Amino acid sequence: MAEERKLVSILFADVTGSTALGDALDPEDVRTLMGRYYAIAREVIPAHGGTLEKFIGDAIMAIFGLPKALGDDAERALAAALALRERVANDELLGPVFQLRIGVNTGEVIATSDPSSGEFLATGDAVNVAARLQQHTNPDEIVVGERTWKATEHAFCFEQPRMAEVKGKPRPIALYPLIGPRATRKQERPPLVGRKQDLMQLALLWERVLEEERPQLVSIMAPAGTGKSRLLEEFLDTLGTEAEYHVAVARCLPYGQQIAYFPLRGLLAQLLGAESKMTREYISSLFVAAGYQQTDAERSAEVILSTLGIEGEKSSDRESIFSAWRLLIEVLSRATPLILVFEDLHWSSNSLLDLVDSLTAMRTNTPLLLLTLSRPELLDRRPNWGGGRQNFTSLALRPLSARQTRELIRKQAAELDPEVMAQIVDRAGGNPFFALELIRGLKERGLTEKKAALNQLPDTVHSAILARMDQLQPQERAILQVAAVAGRGFTLPMLAEALSEYSLHEIAAALVELLERDIIEHTEKNAYTFQHVLFCNVAYKTLSRTQRVCLHERIAASLEAVAGERLDEQVEMIAYHYQEAIRLSRQSAVRMPLTLDVPKALRILRRAARQANQIGEVEEVNAYLQSAISIAPESELISLYEQLGDSLGFALATKEAYQKALEYWEKSKQAQGEDPDFLRTGARLLRKLIIYYERGSGNEIYGIEELPQWRERAQVLAEQAGDQDELHYLAICDGFFISVLSNLARPLPQDIEERVQRLQEACSYFEQKGDQEALNIALDALISHYVRFGSVEKAVPLAQKRLQISGLPASERADAWQMLIRSYVVQGNYPASVQALEQAFGELLPGQTPTYLVSSIRTVIEAAFERGRWDDVERWFAVIESVYLPFFSDEAYDPSLAHLVGIGSYLTALQIALLQEDQARCERYIPLLKRFGELLAEQKKVLDAELSLLLDGELPEELKELYHTHLFVTIEGMKVYNQRGEAQPSRILETLSNDGRIDRKMRAHLDLNQALLERDYERANELVTQLECLGRVVFAAHMKIVLAELTGDLTRLTGVRPLLEGLKDRVFLRRLEALEAA
């Protein structure tokens, strides 16, 4: 390949005072001196393994690491700099008149290995910095950059660094003046831990798993090359072949964070014994054999396979996925003790990390040893990985001791000269992979005797691997580079597709050579893989961005061609390569042209997005579709943005996606004219945007002004297109729409009746068509309508009917339960609401977290609080905490959970803690609520206001505007004022007089506040009784005490003391006791 990225060291040297020298000497003398200087450079630089790139006047530029890396190029550059300075200083002609300034820098460049091309050998920032370093050097001084210093400070001595302002750099850079080579190489020895102790600990944990039949999670963490995989192999060997156990391995790929559950494919095949058994029938049979019902077994099997894109069309939420995998592993481990291994977990997706973590939370006893192998980078993403679990053990592998490294070298290359062996021990730094790679590199070059000098040995893994790669034949090197783009696994057909410049025979022969060199190895089905992933990393880094883009495109096309009818199993991988090609092309300062087949790439990216959406992976859906949008022609953008909006739930990005789709629809309106399909698309987009506001974000007041215009236009477009589905969908919109409008003013009775009739017609229409998705939304609109406008007795049977719809996604089914429970609460049937919530819990898979039910739980918690059923609050709040606390304890907290349904439950719990004067619980809940606030946007003010009312009894000045603009804050503030015997000023309530959201309870609160303002205590007592009948039992008890304080009349306090004592309401008990004492 003509161009490559290479890690090199660049040397710049110039002569101090050369201009003055030219003035003092004859031009011929100057030429003679410079010629002698150049001659010395031509001797010194190549002798140290460098390449002289050019002479520029009195300056020399040399590169170490081109055309081939030698592994210790930074050291060679410094040795050459010292030799050049010494040779010039000792030269009888040059010494008296020449003083050199030398700068050396190490970094990545784009390089060509063909100097005859006439182009620069190397370009990049590392070259520019080297030149700047030389310009900031004193006469007769050698300075190096920080990266060079880090690579060589074990072999050379330096003065203290100084900082210099360098042109083109935003911040000063460090200059390290070179003193000279160390007499003895510096050795860094971190704490040493022998592998024998690690093996003993693994064996002990395995015995514990077998004895206790409880899962154990062991995290083996260490830098690359320290021996994690080797330790695992040795541990498994110690178990022997007679013991009854089963091992399955999931290998995470370097691009794993973009591919959610791909490693589970290999794990499942090993668990089941063959890929042919990865079917719904076989997996469900395992569940049935373990005692599960057939329907549950089939559902779990389908969830597992849909995770991998193998079977199943239904959507699966993450909790269903986690639960299904936990159950499968539990079932299999009951039959045979399991050892599950996750290699390179630091490359996994967040979804897979969560799944692995959830496996250790199995509540049943099962013999399972879970081993995760990762680099320390995992802790950057999950600082608390495994923390807080009793069944978690962390093994941090330390570098080998010198004695252990020597033993390793003797086993691998007993013929090595002792001096060479000592040098390897010194350079390996306790990393067994470093040592083994150094040995292989020496053997391949035939250097096992003393001629294998110290400065020929690589000193880092990157340099070691690069040095080995530079010894390969061109076709062997090209194979490694293509394979690095493909990932750790690759096949001969894929290589042939990507390397058209080589024949199939040449590629096959090169593969044999790479196998013999132990760089690659065979896997199943005539595939190959890198023996160590670091070869993959370094090979990939040698490619220029242009080459990477081209190869990602080719590999995507090759994978699609090979996949055939099994495209869904490979679609994530193919989409990944398209994504990478697109991303890399967009990184270039001058945007690179893409040669990929755009229609084909769009089809794959859309298909991958649909598959990710089925299992609820919103981040992956967004990534796929954004990549598609970035390359799509304008004619495709409408449908792409619509698909994006359909996939994101009710997030802010949903609205933005639909708005973008509408923008492009408007732009193409003139060209499309009156085409029915085009008109239908416009109506559909407007309807989806309307429903976003009405159903998901009805409180976004700033969007309401546009809703009537959107609604009217959607009607016109649907009528012009003759689309009956859209016309009935618009009736559904009207059902939600009138509820939203009631935020501003209560609709007239005839408007309500008309909307109900149209909603009923829409329900019948979609039910007759068998459109379950539309029927679900239509029923939701009708139920919401009845609940909002006082016909809750009609809402209950409809909510029950909605729950009978088959195939509802988890989020929609949870919403159906929420509307049924809310209907019961509004109806005043608290026992029925609790019973319905318990039924909803009964639908959960064993071990499944009830994330989608938190809204229903919140409704019951608030109703229980109002009715004085604080024992029920405690019961259900424990469930809320089981959902939220794991996220609070994890730095990778998911902000999407920071929704008011969770906040409302925590606020209720805090209110009880305050009334019971439970300081410990207050100190626990308040920080958690503030943490919620940090993750909120516009709703943060509402949370701050609620906290201020509970803790301070008043809003701070900057939040008092919410009294006038936010109904919830106004009502809550009024209750706080009233319970301390005060009333909110009437001016605050003026804006609420015609708010259509005010129900009977709110109206009673408003009237009570007015009675307190007018000091009409008889009327106030009547309203307190009315609120008590409406279920506000605790508030009514509090207000009876308040009115007794205001009037001195204690006759209405019957039954208050037993209630407060049962609730342990210390705050109002104290006020009651003060009244009785007076």
From TrEMBL:
It holds the Pfam family Guanylate_cyc. It comes from Thermosporothrix hazakensis. Residues 9-134 form the Guanylate cyclase domain. The keyword Zinc-finger does not apply. One of its GO terms (cellular component) is cytoplasm. This is AAA ATPase-like protein. GO terms for molecular function: adenylate cyclase activity; ATP binding. InterPro entries: A/G_cyclase, AAA_16, Nucleotide_cyclase, P-loop_NTPase, TPR-like_helical_dom_sf. Keywords: ATP-binding, Nucleotide-binding. SMART domains: CYCc. GO terms for biological process: cyclic nucleotide biosynthetic process; intracellular signal transduction. The keyword ATP-binding applies. It comes from the Bacteria.
